Amino acid sequence: METIKCLIIGSGPAGYTAAVYASRASLSPVLYEGMEPGGQLTTTTLVENFPGFENGVDANVLMASMRAQAARFGTDIRSGRIKAVDFSARPFRVVDDHDRELLAEAVIIATGATAKYLGLPSEHRFRGLGVSACATCDGFFYRKKDVAVVGGGDTACEEATYLAGLCRKVYMIVRRDVFRASSAMQERVMNTPNIEILWNCNTQEVLGDDSGVTGARLVRKDGKVFDIQIDGFFLAIGHHPNSDLFKDWIETDANGYIVTQGKSSRTNVEGVFAAGDVQDPSYRQAITAAASGCRAALDVERFLQGGK
Ligand code: NDP
User: Fold this and answer.
1) Residue 61, domain extent
2) Are residues 38 and 78 in the same domain?
């Protein structure tokens, strides 16, 4: 059976940054790319807020470049995913989807999170063409335009107020007659004049043409069907952290996010570390994920050296 020092699970900014640091520290990391090589970023187009790219960078180019950088320092990058883990004793036993067993001295979990979508065919059709699950990433493209945000939680309120600073008008499509968000966030929304809340509404269809999204057809609880004209349709109905594989061993919060200790990437299992969106319900940015990947690699290095 193959024994490795450092296993990295996931290939978003967290996984690749961990790989760059771990390989430069001579930990000979093995990285499994998982189901979505390159991670969530590959579902967007232009990334304008990753430092170092004055004119922005194509998301796929950015991820290919991170991958190449990790490979250049010797990371063993493997396609496929880890399908089973046993964290009961070190070295940790894991199995990949070719039924290969590995023993790992340390593991970095960087499996990310998945944004929830409504599941409408029209929403799928316009993904990247006006449909987005990240206002911070894509809001800038809708300056002075009209957009809608779906959801009534803290994320929806935060994204709606963020977009209200850029856009002419922001509709919030809320399926009940109350918000789920905290009262402070609700107050911010209520005090923002260019946000209009459409209570008791669900989206029937995202409307558009070859140029992208042009509107949305909504249905209100009383049966009324009506259209709104918008250029951007933002989903903010929650994320699902990809932590299910580890749930028998690793402590998570009520929403499934892996709990890390203090400012470190340490989990409740000594030798298992977590980085990126799988342990971060609040920031969820490529740059914050990358930074936490760096921390995780440094934590692994210290751990394997016998320090803290
Ligand atoms: P939440 O689960 O809190 O809220 C999801 C929202 O989306 C709810 O309003 C829900 O409606 C709605 N929703 C879910 N499914 C659908 C659907 N199919 N159609 C229409 N609407 C739907 O997720 P968040 O991402 O907002 O927050 C996750 C966690 O992160 C929370 O604990 C939150 O407090 C925290 N957070 C904190 C922030 C902060 O403090 N600054 C910022 C962002 C998040 P319903 O209420 O009817 O179920």
Assistant:
1) 2-114+239-304
2) yes
Cα 124 to ligand 1 centroid, rounded to whole Å = 21
Do 127 and 102 belong together in one domain? no
Q: Which residue has the tokens 């935060």?
A: 158
Q: Which residues contact residue 105 at a Cβ distance below 8 angstroms, ignoring those fewer than 6 apart?
A: 3, 4, 5, 6, 90, 91, 92, 271, 304
Element (H, E) at 202: strand 201-209
Q: What is the CATH number of the domain that holds 151?
A: 3.50.50.60
Per-residue pLDDT of the chain (308 residues; tens, 9 = 90+): 899 999 999 999 999 999 999 999 999 999 999 988 999 888 777 788 899 999 999 989 999 999 999 999 999 999 999 999 999 999 999 999 999 999 999 999 999 999 999 999 999 999 989 999 989 889 999 999 999 999 999 889 989 999 999 999 999 999 999 999 999 999 999 999 999 999 999 999 999 999 999 999 999 999 999 999 999 999 999 889 999 999 999 999 999 999 999 999 999 999 999 999 999 988 988 999 999 999 999 999 999 999 65
> Looking at the structure, do residues 163 and 99 belong to the same domain, yes or no?
no
- Same-domain status, 74 and 97: yes
Q: CA–CA separation, 104 vs 90, rounded Å?
A: 8
Tell me if residue 6 is catalytic: no
The number of domains in the chain is 2
Q: Judge if 251 and 285 occupy the same domain.
A: yes
Residue type (1 letter), 135: A
Please say if 138 is a catalytic residue. Answer: yes
- Closest ligand 1 atom to residue 156 Cα is 26
Rounded to the nearest whole angstrom, what is the distance from the C-alpha of residue 179 to the centroid of ligand 1?
A: 9
